[in-house]
Structure formats: C-alpha cells, structure tokens
Amino acid sequence: MRARLLALVLLLLLAGCSAGGTRDDGRITLRFQSLAWQEESVEANKELVKEWNATHPDVRVEYVQGSWDSVHDQLLTAFEGGEAPDIIHDASDDLADFAYGGYLADLTGLLPARLKSDISQRTWETTTFGDGVYGVPFLQEPRVLIANATWLKRSGVRIPTPEKPWSWAEFRRITEQLSGRGKYGVAWPLKEPVSATLNLSLSTGGRLFHRGADGKVTVRFEAADQVVPRTIHAQTGTDRSASPTTLGSGGSDTLPGFFGGRYAMVPLGFSYRQQMVQQAPKGFTWQVLPAPAGAGGLTQGVSPQTLSVAEDSPHKKEAAAFIDFLLRPKNMVRLALGDWMLPTGTRALNDPALRTSEHGWATGTALAAHLRPAPAQTVRGYPEWKDKVATPALQEYYSGAIGIHELRERLEEDGNLVLARYQR
Questions:
Q1: pTM value?
Q2: Which of 11, 358, 406, 408 is buried deepest, with most CB atoms within 10 A?
Q3: Is beta strand 28-34 parallel, antiparallel or unpaired with respect to 59-65?
Q4: Per residue in 36-81, pLDDT tens?
C-alpha cells in the first residue's frame, strides 16, 4: 500500500512540473528550444532567460538546447508526437511546410505593435505564409568576402566597398590576377551549394522560382540565374583561380588554407568573423569585403533566424510575451553580438556597437539594406527539392561532371516534378 501511495505522489509531482504546462501552484512553464551554438551566443540566450525568470515569477522559461544539424527532422517528430517546445528557434526557409502543416501558431494578433514596426515589412515577408505570420525574424547575415588584407594590398587590386563593389566580371578578373604558383584568388566552400548560389544570384537579377496567377511555383533557370554559377564554374575549371578541392568543404574547412596563404579570399557568412578572431594566427590581417554586385546591385537573399510558437502550446500569449522580451532593441543587440550576425530590428541595427569598423561590423551593417527574402522562402517542398535535386546537380556542375544545359534540365524538369507534389 505504501509503495502504491509513493508511486501516486510521484506521478502527481511529475504532472505538476511537466515542461510546457501549468504547475499545481499556477505557475506556467514554457520550453524555449534554442539553436544557439557559439559560446557567446549560448551565454547571451541563457542570460536573457535568467533575466526573464527573475522578473516573471508566474511564467518560467526553461532553456532547451537544440542543434542546427537535425532541427527539421527533430521538430517534425516533436510536432507529430505532441511534444514540441512552446518557443521554437529555427530559420525562415524551414518554416513553410510547418506553417502550412498547421504546426505553428499564427502570431498576427499576439505580437505587440513595437515589435511589428521595428522590423521592416520585407523582412516580415520571410515568415509570412498565406494570411498568417508564423515566426519573428530576428537575426540575419549577408554573405561577404573575407580577404587576406596583406595579400590584396601587395597585389595593388582595387579594394571594393559597399559604395563601390566589384562586379561579378571584375571579381573573376581579380581572382585570376591573384592566382598562380599553387595559390588561388578564391576558395569557394560549397558543401551546401544551394543557398549560396540562389541567394547571391539575387544580385544578378536571378529569381529561379516563379509563382503563377494560380499560386503554383515553377522553376526556371534563366540567364540571370546562371551568372553566379557560371562564374564559379569558370574560376574553378577555366581560370584555375578557385581551388577545386574546397568545393565539397564547409566554410570552417577552408580556414587553415586561408591562414596558410593558399587562398586570397573566401566567401563566407558574416558570422564566420568570430572564427577569424579566434583562430587567425598572430600577425595575420584580414578584412571584410562586400560580395560582388550585378544588375540587382548588392541585393542578396537571406533566410533570417526566427522565433515561432507551437500551435499546440497552451500558453501562446505568454510565449509571445517572452519573444517580445527577448527581442527588445538592447536584447537584440546582445543576441547579434553573441552570434556575430545582424539584427533585423532597425533600432538595434543602429546601435553604435554594430557600426564600428573593427572586425568588419560597419561593412555588414551597410549591407543590411540590400538583404531580401531568399528566393525559396515561401516555396513548399523546397527542402526536398534542395536535398534531392538541386544539391547533387550543383555539386556535379561545379565539379565539371555536367554542363550548364544539363544543370538547367535537372533543376527545372526534376525540380518541378518534386514541387508539383506539394502544390496539388
């Protein structure tokens, strides 16, 4: 009898303290799954959770560590099992299927006017699906060129600025000029080639995804979409100005060769500057340059990091209030500094801490006005199209295994068959 009583007490305690619910004492517990991974970013997120908990005794937030490597599949499993966290950290290009699938709450009526007005309308478009808003975009990063400053200075090439960037043709000529004797003007880390290719192609006027009057999306790989991949292909295969060995590498994999003087430049996300500060050898000087510009100027696509609320959360109002706290201007600056990225909020973006020339912050903030929603933002079926069609096709093209015409056929014909299944 005593054992049964103890078991009953234990079950009641567990029920009262379950995450994402309400305790017997009336206190709400929200689970916040964060994908922060850099030490400074994790620390900033945990500090903000602690500050919230200190001032909101009736709504406690529990920090849950997630991982970018498995977030899509992990969330899908959690949604289908009814165990999703209340507050979800993700990226905007991963939200479409979750939003249309009914897994995310529409935040339209839950967010305060302050937060809505602080983020530009074009940025809100990255999390708007149909008539609803299913996430708050809060961090973003442009792609930039991280360059060996000493090498470029000695070469005498023109150094680009956000006001006077290189064109894609000039960029190709300069990388060829910088190459020779076993060294390369650029190293493209294209283990994940799709987002880099599509987002940079906005600068040349590329769109790739075209939505018809019926709302259905088709893939068209037109001349403007081909400028960036043709440039990379020519640098690698014709000019010998881009290292062929880095095409299958991630960004971090290129840094040892960069520090060793093998490559003059590496196109990377803005946040890689943290690794530069931490890993660059003593005496190595580097600088941040804008990516090349085309017919569309410095425009490039981004998929901001986002905060969403699970549709199954019984405490949507409280979850939205925590998001509002997390994204107050001063707090958004702390998160941006921790992740070495740019905030989406206009007040945070104007903070002096993000306008300094040190570590290229000023170059990044100058590019913020040119960031647009990535081409794939609202395309249902994009994850499958990317993984099964676009990634292998682009990898084969960049390696020289197929030509531009076969690349076009695969992106369009095979790609449209995939997307059609999601648009019936």
A1: 0.88
A2: 408
A3: parallel
A4: 988 899 999 999 999 999 999 999 999 999 999 889 999 999 999 9
